[in-house]
């Protein structure tokens, strides 16, 4: 029996869908089956064959235009000319590893550290978010002398041995590490504690106490501050603060996984964690920092990083290479010069307003929540019971795909649409997205 992963299998093409495909699409899916490993997944019952992207738009092989409402990897927009130019110019000059001196890595580090809290003053570069989180866990263990890592119940932090062992979203087929503990997601749509911050801090403390009872020393709490895989849970701002105080009181560190909420995505702040008024010990990020170019980073407090780097050399062959650093610098420059943080805040507020009108119109829309251009749209059987409606969410995804709107689902129940477009998203795109949702819901949820 195949164990399904909530992050990989919820909205995916499966063998039973193959007979309904057009011949040219069936040819491609059959070829993938023959030559790629079985772990790969495709989106949609009728997979999309994409060949071109620009800004927030994508085109398939037949020339059909799509609105991308899912892809944060191309964070400032597909094929952004500033990134294309920066990468092209640097590729024509040099691309090599960090055992040689080069200005790009130094210039970018100065630029990006200027956006972090003053306590964060060191950087190490990799190629993927998985690598960044893997190293962060190693540093946490070195600094604390412990091994215990706490994550939320549907967290996803990567695919390496260490990170998959701390990623419940990969499903029961991927065992968690015996030193990993899980806390409930801060789902304040269903949970209504009088003090959300104290409730979450108490849940963290319970798992630390459980570690002690099992002779596991606590090392750290690893979290994506918008809890995207848990169903997009951004609010209330500040509720993380008490939990981080508990983490520090027990000798652990806070690792802020900013692969998804970072780089102006949430609108309120440049970094997602900053909405909560906390200072992480480590920040990790991934491919959105290079608009899809393979680059990632770990930013840390010097004393925290020293516990590892003073004893263990770290070398990632092409982490921080001149081409990747040129891409990252171009992305940061665009975000700052075009005020994409402010743009994300304004566009996100407009989109939330329109989505909440749909919530008032359709009883199957249980909750709409978000920060900036990162919004969760939750489907339920009825607003009283708040029972998750996964079947409706998956059918809705397919109806949107048929209207040229691409997104997917999140959360432990697979019933939350994760609306996370490139930051190039504009007011005119709201009409396309909300109109498509309205038409689909009229048919699926009258």
TrEMBL record:
CDD domains on file: OAT_like
A Pfam family that the UniProt record links to this protein: Aminotran_3
Keyword Disulfide bond: no
Sorted UniProt keywords: Pyridoxal phosphate
Cofactor: pyridoxal 5'-phosphate
Signal peptide location: none
Key word Ion transport present: no
Lineage: superkingdom: Bacteria
A GO MF term: pyridoxal phosphate binding
Family, as annotated: Belongs to the class-III pyridoxal-phosphate-dependent aminotransferase family.
Protein name: 4-aminobutyrate aminotransferase
């Amino acid at each position: 029996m195949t164990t399904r992963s909530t992050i990989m299998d919820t909205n995916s093409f499966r063998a039973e869908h193959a007979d309904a495909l057009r011949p040219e699409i069936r040819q491609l899916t059959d070829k993938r089956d023959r030559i790629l490993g079985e772990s790969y997944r495709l989106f949609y019952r009728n997979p999309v064959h994409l060949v071109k992207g620009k800004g927030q738009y994508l085109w398939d092989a037949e020339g059909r235009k799509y609105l991308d409402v899912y892809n944060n990897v191309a964070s400032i927009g597909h094929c952004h000319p500033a990134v294309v130019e920066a990468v092209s110019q640097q590729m024509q000059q040099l691309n090599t590893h960090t055992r040689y001196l080069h200005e790009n890595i130094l210039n970018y580090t100065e630029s990006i550290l200027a956006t972090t809290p003053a306590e964060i003053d060191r950087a190490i570069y990799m190629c993927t978010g998985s690598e960044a989180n893997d190293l962060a866990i190693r540093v946490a263990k070195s600094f604390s002398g412990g091994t215990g890592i706490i994550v939320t119940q549907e967290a996803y932090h990567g695919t390496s041995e260490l990170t998959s062992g701390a990623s419940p979203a990969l499903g029961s087929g991927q065992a968690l590490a015996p030193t990993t503990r899980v806390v409930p997601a801060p789902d304040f749509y269903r949970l209504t504690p009088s003090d959300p911050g104290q409730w979450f801090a108490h849940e963290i403390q319970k798992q630390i106490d459980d570690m002690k009872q099992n002779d596991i020393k606590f090392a750290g709490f690893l979290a994506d501050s918008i809890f995207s895989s848990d169903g997009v849970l951004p609010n209330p701002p500040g509720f993380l603060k008490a939990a981080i105080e508990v983490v520090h009181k027990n000798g652990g560190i806070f690792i802020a996984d900013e692969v998804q909420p970072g780089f102006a995505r949430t609108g309120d702040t440049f970094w997602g964690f900053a909405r909560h008024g906390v200072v992480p010990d480590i920040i990790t990020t991934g491919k959105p920092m290079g608009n899809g170019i393979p680059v990632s980073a770990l930013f840390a407090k010097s004393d925290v990083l020293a516990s590892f780097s003073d004893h263990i050399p770290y070398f990632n062959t092409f982490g921080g290479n001149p081409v990747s650093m040129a891409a990252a610098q171009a992305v940061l420059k665009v975000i700052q010069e075009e005020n994409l943080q402010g743009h994300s805040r304004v566009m996100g507020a407009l989109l939330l307003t329109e989505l909440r009108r749909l919530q008032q119109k359709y009883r199957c829309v249980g909750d709409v929540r978000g920060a900036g251009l990162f919004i969760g749209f939750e489907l339920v059987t009825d607003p009283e019971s708040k029972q998750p409606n996964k079947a409706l969410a998956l059918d809705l995804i397919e109806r949107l795909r048929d209207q040229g709107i691409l997104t997917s689902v999140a959360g432990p129940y697979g019933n939350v649409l994760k609306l996370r477009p490139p930051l190039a998203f504009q007011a005119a795109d709201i009409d396309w997205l909300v109109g498509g949702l309205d038409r689909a819901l009229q048919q699926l949820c009258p």
